[in-house]
Design goal:
The complex is a heterodimer.
Chain A (H helix, E strand, L loop, with lengths): L3 E4 L2 E4 L5 E7 L5 E7 L5 E9 L2 E4 L6 E3 L9 E3 L8 E8 L5 E2 L3 E5 L1
Parallel strand pairs in A: 2-11
Antiparallel strand pairs in A: 1-3, 3-8, 4-5, 4-9, 5-6, 7-8, 9-10, 9-11
Chain B lengths: L3 E3 L4 E4 L4 E7 L7 E6 L6 E6 L3 E5 L2 E6 L4 E6 L8 E8 L6 E3 L3 E6 L1
Parallel strand pairs in B: 2-11
Antiparallel strand pairs in B: 1-3, 3-8, 4-5, 4-9, 6-7, 7-8, 9-10, 9-11
The chains are: A mainly beta, B mainly beta.
Chain lengths: ~110, ~110
């Protein structure tokens, strides 16, 4: 099946820990994105990458890091510097103007 | 920062009625506009895209764009309970695929 796979679906993080969210796509899309959604809010862009080995900060990049070593993969690390990481994280990929989304990872700080 | 504003909702309509969802945007040079539907706990799915002034119809959905007024809307005809979801308006930025989202309007269609 072609698509975008995010894992895990649910993730719990202790205070001070770094955690990594996985995003893999087999759509052969060049561009990939990470968005964050808080309750009652729209999606806000964290990072995006238009090509392998290159990525740019979005609107809320502080406390997050990414890598793009392979076209298919765009993992997001939520570092301890992110003070309020509890949110729904969505990965997307695109070859045109409108991205398609993975199923999301719900991260909770415990 | 590009702003995308949606009518706050929630919006509640009876089955069979027309639901009207509205969105305004701040960047006058925006060229691409999208409506995503998001069911509770799920990821957004694209239902309509529009790039030119006027109306675009797809089944029960009609998107309307007025660039002079910086306004885009979504009409859902013959609303069904399965249309109950949050509808997100998104506007394209200068980078291909980079979108700016509104907060969403929650729609409930009651039988």
């Amino acid at each position: 099946d072609g698509g975008i796979t995010q894992s895990p679906k649910y993730l719990f993080r202790k205070e001070g820990q770094n955690v990594t969210l996985s995003c893999e796509q087999n759509l052969n899309h060049d561009a990939m994105y990470w968005y964050r959604q808080d309750p009652g809010q729209g999606l806000r862009l964290i990072y995006y990458s238009q090509i392998v080995n290159d990525f740019q900060k979005g609107d809320i990049a502080e406390g997050y890091s990414v890598s793009r070593e392979k076209k298919e993969s765009f993992p997001l690390t939520v570092t301890s510097a992110q003070k309020n990481p509890t949110a729904f994280y969505l990965c997307a990929s695109s070859t045109s103007t409108s991205p398609s989304f993975g199923q999301g990872t719900r991260l909770t700080v415990v | 920062q590009k702003e995308v504003e949606q009518n706050s909702g929630p919006l509640s309509v009876p089955e069979g009625a027309i639901a009207s969802l509205n969105c305004t945007y701040s960047d006058r040079v925006s060229q691409s506009f999208f409506w995503y539907r998001q069911y509770s706990g799920k990821s957004p799915e694209l239902i309509m895209s529009i790039y030119s002034n006027g109306d675009k119809e797809d089944g029960r959905f009609t998107a309307q764009l007025n660039k002079a007024s910086q306004y885009v809307s979504l009409l859902i005809r013959d609303s069904q309970p399965s249309d109950s979801a949050t509808y997100l308006c998104a506007v394209g930025g200068s980078t291909l695929g980079r979108l700016y989202f509104g907060r969403g309007t929650q729609l409930t269609v009651w039988p």
